[in-house]
Specification:
Cytochrome Bc1 Complex, Chain D, domain 2; two-stranded antiparallel ribbon; two-stranded parallel ribbon; 409 residues; 17 helices; alpha+beta; 2 domains
Length: 409
């Protein structure tokens, strides 16, 4: 039973990373370079935001998170672990109540009310009246939990949705550790608690190794055919299936002989038919442009020359998408993000390819920390790491200009 439980307890929702190369019939979009069909993408938007793939069977029946939320998770607590609230889902009376403090943000009943309004990004609740009281009877999660945030236009953690933006405030490990199915196991709680905000290990539930990865953005993927950090496949549908079934606990099947992972949940497939539309929506999400005034244009122009010259960046970050991922992958010995932090095993060694993909750089300004494991907190740290490990000999001025260029992407 412990093994079975552990094989579900990794809550990824990296539902927008990517992949291929499995034995699944993923309805792959081989014309991924073409703009997605807008009608299909619109369907995918609803799936991305609202579809749990039937994962309530895991989050409610196994983890009992509905009970945890109803008894102990008030909005202040929810916001503190990185959950977000969609301000556009709030009726005027609720907006006024939050502003004048007549609605308590320290009462779990308010969280239940927000779930009833479908206002908690990436969390779907079924709220029923039991003995005259609104009661959270079922709860599940969607792709948006990790791959959407909000613009904080109402308050920190409350605002308009930003789909595709990695939720680097989300602390999945802390959330999972709240489950009574987990909290009694101190060793497992310690592992989940070690991940921190914005990180998650999508392999832990299979190999038992602890090496959390940063939650990736789900935008700017059109034309990129190796979408996970290890390039396990060539379309998003592969990774969407992996996450939906093996991490979220959705009803369906995932199997890949390369990793030995084979999971079937339930008797009815609630995943496969939704993958084409979900992928279309993800491919429609453009990377956000850098905010006005966030970089020095003159310095960035000089930095572009460093990028293409002394910095040697363009040897891998090449072509219009600034990645060679469609042509090749790279051995761990070629990358600067290893060895992994805290003595963790090579993440590539836990993957299907045993290699790494060159990350595309669009929207780079938005999703610190950097590298697959978040080992560089800033773009300055990224440049310093490359300069040191590749022995580039860049001057301080060249490094500063290169950082400005990266901020402009």
């Amino acid at each position: 039973m412990k093994t079975q439980l552990r094989n579900f307890l990794a809550v990824s929702i990296l539902a927008a990373m990517a992949g291929c190369g499995s034995s699944n019939n993923d309805a792959r979009t081989r014309s991924a370079d073409a703009p997605p069909d807008p009608i299909l993408a619109a369907q995918g938007k609803e799936i991305f935001r609202s579809d749990t793939f039937g994962d309530e069977a895991f989050w409610t029946d196994t983890l009992h998170m509905n009970e945890v939320i109803a008894s102990a998770v008030d909005p202040t607590t929810a916001l503190s672990v990185g959950l977000k609230v969609d301000s556009e889902a709030l009726p005027p009376a609720v907006v006024q109540g939050i502003q004048d403090h007549s609605i308590s943000l320290t009462d779990p009943a308010t969280t239940v009310a927000l779930l009833k309004l479908n206002a908690v990004v990436g969390v779907k609740g079924t709220v029923e009246t039991v003995n005259g009281v609104d009661t959270l009877t079922r709860v599940g999660i969607t792709c948006a939990l990790c791959h959407s945030t909000v613009d904080d236009s109402f308050a920190p953690g409350i605002g308009k949705r930003l789909d595709g933006w990695a939720n680097r405030d989300l602390n999945p490990g802390a959330i999972i550790a709240l489950s009574p199915a987990v909290s009694a196991n101190a060793a497992v709680v310690a592992i989940y608690s070690s991940w921190g905000a914005g990180k998650y290990d999508p392999r832990f539930n299979f190999d038992g190794l602890n090496g959390p990865q940063v939650i990736p953005p789900a935008y700017g993927l059109l034309g990129v055919h190796s979408i996970t950090s290890t390039g396990d496949g060539s379309d998003i549908a592969y990774w969407n299936r992996y996450v939906a079934v093996t991490q979220m606990g959705g009803q369906g099947t995932f199997a890949d002989s390369r990793t030995g992972v084979s999971v079937t949940n339930g008797a009815t497939d609630l995943v496969s038919s939704k993958l084409p539309a979900l992928q279309a929506y993800q491919l429609s999400l453009a990377a956000p442009l850098p905010p006005a005034g966030s970089f020095d244009p003159m310095s960035a122009a000089r930095g572009k020359l460093v990028f293409e010259g002394a910095g040697q960046c363009s040897t891998c970050h090449s072509g219009p998408l600034l990645t060679d991922a469609n042509i090749r992958l790279h051995a761990p010995s070629e990358v600067v993000s290893e060895p992994e932090p805290n003595g963790a095993p090579s993440y590539a060694s836990r993957s299907a390819t045993k290699q790494y993909r060159t990350a595309p750089l669009a929207g780079l300004w938005q999703h610190a920390p950097y590298f697959h494991n978040g080992s560089a907190a800033t773009l300055e740290a990224v440049v310093d790491t490359y300069n040191s490990k590749k022995v580039l000999g860049l001057t301080d001025a060249q490094k500063a200009d290169l950082v400005q260029y990266l901020k402009s992407l």
